[in-house]
Amino acid sequence: MKICTITLALAGCLALSGCQTASMSTGARTGEFGCIAGTVGGAVVGGLAGATIGSGTGQLWAVGGGAVLGSAAGSALTCT
Predict the structure, then answer these.
(1) Secondary structure of residue 54 in the 3-state scheme
(2) Mind giving me the DSSP string for 57-71?
(3) Which residues have C-beta within 8 Å of that of residue 19, sequence separation ≥ 6?
(4) How many Å apart are CA 74 and CA 41, to the nearest integer?
(5) How far lies 36's CA from each of 67, 68, 72, in Å?
(6) Cα–Cα–Cα angle for 2, 75, 3, nearest 5°?
(7) Over its length of 80 residues, how does the chain's per-residue pLDDT go in tens digits?
(8) How many CB atoms lie within 10 A of CB 23?
(9) Three-state DSSP class for 19?
(10) Nearest CA-CA partner of 16 in 70, 78, 53
(11) Is the full-model pTM beyond 0.85?
């Protein structure tokens, strides 16, 4: 996979993770960093895992799917 494709996939993951909001009751932001870090970390790990599967267009779909599933798993594990 070309470095440009990996860079674009990771940039997309970071852009999507910026839409993540944490539900805080009193406006305290103590757990927000952990939530964002878990979501972004999961997206990166999922994207890298997807990069090892397939070739060509199928590999691109695997990277995207891995990033989406990884970010969902990271969010579920770290966000309350």
Answers:
(1) coil
(2) HHHHHHHHHHHHHHH
(3) none
(4) 7
(5) 14, 14, 11
(6) 5
(7) 577 777 777 677 666 666 656 555 555 455 688 888 888 888 889 888 888 887 888 888 888 898 999 999 888 888 86
(8) 8
(9) coil
(10) 70
(11) no
